[in-house]
Amino acid sequence: MGEFELISHYFAAAPCAQGGEGVALGIGDDCALLDLPAGEQLAISTDTLVAGVHFPAVCDPLLLGQRALAVAVSDLAAMGATAIGFTLALTLPDVGRDWLAGFADGLGRMARRCAISLIGGDTTRGPLSITVTVFGRVPAGQALRRSGARSGDLLCVGGPLGNAAGALPLVLGEREAPGELAAPLLEHYWAPLPQLRLGAQLRGRATAALDISDGLLADCGHIAKASGVALQVNLAQVPVSAALQAFLGREAALHAALTGGDDYVLAFTAPAAALSGLAETVHVIGRVCEGQGVTLLDAQGQDITPQQRGYQHFRETP
Amino acid sequence: MGEFELISHYFAAAPCAQGGEGVALGIGDDCALLDLPAGEQLAISTDTLVAGVHFPAVCDPLLLGQRALAVAVSDLAAMGATAIGFTLALTLPDVGRDWLAGFADGLGRMARRCAISLIGGDTTRGPLSITVTVFGRVPAGQALRRSGARSGDLLCVGGPLGNAAGALPLVLGEREAPGELAAPLLEHYWAPLPQLRLGAQLRGRATAALDISDGLLADCGHIAKASGVALQVNLAQVPVSAALQAFLGREAALHAALTGGDDYVLAFTAPAAALSGLAETVHVIGRVCEGQGVTLLDAQGQDITPQQRGYQHFRETP
């Protein structure tokens, strides 16, 4: 087999290469073809992961395949979309059969968990880099935007934050931890499960939503700016996992939850009346007010918004 | 401005970032949103260009921007689709304002020529690499596939071949040529114009189609394999430009046209009766027969199919 036959062999063999609902034509022609039910819009997002920048240059390809797909699908969840398919643009320095088999396996596992199909791609030679473009469908006009938050809404997140940031020193081999602490953190880093079901539940309920990738405070800044409102975050309400707290201690765990990034958990705003019946992992962490920017409050309601340069992302500049 | 504000500044300023027909939501949220008219399917293709592999590491960013979009849009033409939008995943080693301004300008110029809008993207730090994913629409069931060629059809191409391959030594600085020879070749390399109009004309006429990117003989092999037929190419009918022939001589020009790649000209099969009224640049270059593989015939009908290893791509293996 030549290089490209080898690659197509692995990905064609992956279960995720089977066409799913909405996929009229998958891999193998000049384009893939999607069908879209009447009254629905197509949601599209693209994410690139570069070796040595977004993941360690040497890592388990199975884990990498899971993560590369998950971080992209998370954007579909953030819009309230149902996943349909994805394309994979894979740039590889060389073709190792074990690496490809592992990567395709990881990609396939996450594809099954998200009910999404590989519909096309491009393989090129070069420094290791992975670009995944995802496609979903959402009823017309019901996509969750960042721009609809209104004063009086509550601010919520879809689950504990900071696990992926906490896992980073483990991923990089800078620290070690007992297996029962390390496992849930590493799981969140390497296989964050996109909150597709919560996103779908939020259609018609949430006024604004996104998935947390830059860190809670930075991403709250994106909602505040897009909606023309201020967001107040109550530190005491920010959820952190028991594993993260045990690994880092309470203060560092909260720091990771506020600024760490890579959570791929939804953050959203909604009127209080719209929250009944949502997933139990949803936590109210603050509220929407008139004004601009993001304010962090302690348990006494004191403004403890960090001012350091490292937090500049959530201080939006014009 | 920070890194990402700088980048969004350039691409938001580019005319191609304006939403066009079918774009319900462009850059700035977690996903872009597309509308699709009833009875149409969405066509999707993705292409990656890597510095030092697909283009010289040092080159004019304006030309690179044009080329990166053109080679991707060409896949929409090959399916008979109408262009709607594209996403850009741009990985850059550093952020140079002049480079970004030039690249955005080139991207915008090609976007206007193809009537396609930038709808989203991702910018990351790393070795220079560009992944463009394009979206088009095509009436349901009318997309041009590779698999419909039938014995008795004629084999056609949308214009002269080999110009981009002929330009390569000029691009790489290995040769020089007088301006009047070099200009049309370089234009074809850096700004190949996707044959969207011809592709649309071919809906309901062509039985199979693709855009020539791997070289005529290799790509004819793809049609032959997908359709389960044999293709005969008549060397004397293969069109080459006057500029290419003057630059390389007749024999080398034909060699470039047969195997050079990067043409982004359509190749298609159709019954003779379906060819009337097509663009004047269309040339009949052979025919479809029972059997398999691609055969090259000289003016006397002798089989002169090249057997060298360099041509292996059009010798399909099971």
From TrEMBL, chains A, B:
<dbReference type="InterPro" id="IPR006283">
    <property type="entry name" value="ThiL-like"/>
</dbReference>
<comment type="pathway">
    <text>Cofactor biosynthesis; thiamine diphosphate biosynthesis; thiamine diphosphate from thiamine phosphate: step 1/1.</text>
</comment>
<dbReference type="Pfam" id="PF02769">
    <property type="entry name" value="AIRS_C"/>
</dbReference>
<feature type="binding site">
    <location>
        <position position="122"/>
    </location>
    <ligand>
        <name>Mg(2+) 1</name>
    </ligand>
</feature>
<comment type="similarity">
    <text>Belongs to the thiamine-monophosphate kinase family.</text>
</comment>
<dbReference type="GO" id="GO:0009030">
    <property type="term" value="F:thiamine-phosphate kinase activity"/>
</dbReference>
<keyword id="KW-0460">Magnesium</keyword>
<keyword id="KW-0067">ATP-binding</keyword>
<feature type="binding site">
    <location>
        <position position="75"/>
    </location>
    <ligand>
        <name>Mg(2+) 3</name>
    </ligand>
</feature>
<keyword id="KW-0479">Metal-binding</keyword>
<keyword id="KW-0418">Kinase</keyword>
<feature type="domain" description="PurM-like N-terminal">
    <location>
        <begin position="28"/>
        <end position="138"/>
    </location>
</feature>
<feature type="binding site">
    <location>
        <position position="46"/>
    </location>
    <ligand>
        <name>Mg(2+) 1</name>
    </ligand>
</feature>
<feature type="binding site">
    <location>
        <position position="30"/>
    </location>
    <ligand>
        <name>Mg(2+) 4</name>
    </ligand>
</feature>
<feature type="binding site">
    <location>
        <position position="214"/>
    </location>
    <ligand>
        <name>Mg(2+) 5</name>
    </ligand>
</feature>
<comment type="function">
    <text>Catalyzes the ATP-dependent phosphorylation of thiamine-monophosphate (TMP) to form thiamine-pyrophosphate (TPP), the active form of vitamin B1.</text>
</comment>
<dbReference type="InterPro" id="IPR010918">
    <property type="entry name" value="PurM-like_C_dom"/>
</dbReference>
<feature type="binding site">
    <location>
        <position position="262"/>
    </location>
    <ligand>
        <name>substrate</name>
    </ligand>
</feature>
<keyword id="KW-0808">Transferase</keyword>
<feature type="binding site">
    <location>
        <begin position="121"/>
        <end position="122"/>
    </location>
    <ligand>
        <name>ATP</name>
    </ligand>
</feature>
<feature type="binding site">
    <location>
        <position position="75"/>
    </location>
    <ligand>
        <name>Mg(2+) 2</name>
    </ligand>
</feature>
<feature type="domain" description="PurM-like C-terminal">
    <location>
        <begin position="151"/>
        <end position="296"/>
    </location>
</feature>
<feature type="binding site">
    <location>
        <position position="54"/>
    </location>
    <ligand>
        <name>substrate</name>
    </ligand>
</feature>
<feature type="binding site">
    <location>
        <position position="47"/>
    </location>
    <ligand>
        <name>Mg(2+) 2</name>
    </ligand>
</feature>
<keyword id="KW-0547">Nucleotide-binding</keyword>
<feature type="binding site">
    <location>
        <position position="30"/>
    </location>
    <ligand>
        <name>Mg(2+) 3</name>
    </ligand>
</feature>
<feature type="binding site">
    <location>
        <position position="146"/>
    </location>
    <ligand>
        <name>ATP</name>
    </ligand>
</feature>
<feature type="binding site">
    <location>
        <position position="311"/>
    </location>
    <ligand>
        <name>substrate</name>
    </ligand>
</feature>
<feature type="binding site">
    <location>
        <position position="47"/>
    </location>
    <ligand>
        <name>Mg(2+) 1</name>
    </ligand>
</feature>
<feature type="binding site">
    <location>
        <position position="75"/>
    </location>
    <ligand>
        <name>Mg(2+) 4</name>
    </ligand>
</feature>
<feature type="binding site">
    <location>
        <position position="211"/>
    </location>
    <ligand>
        <name>Mg(2+) 3</name>
    </ligand>
</feature>
<feature type="binding site">
    <location>
        <position position="213"/>
    </location>
    <ligand>
        <name>ATP</name>
    </ligand>
</feature>
<feature type="binding site">
    <location>
        <position position="45"/>
    </location>
    <ligand>
        <name>Mg(2+) 4</name>
    </ligand>
</feature>
<dbReference type="InterPro" id="IPR016188">
    <property type="entry name" value="PurM-like_N"/>
</dbReference>
<dbReference type="Pfam" id="PF00586">
    <property type="entry name" value="AIRS"/>
</dbReference>
<keyword id="KW-0784">Thiamine biosynthesis</keyword>
<protein>
    <recommendedName>
        <fullName>Thiamine-monophosphate kinase</fullName>
        <ecNumber>2.7.4.16</ecNumber>
    </recommendedName>
</protein>
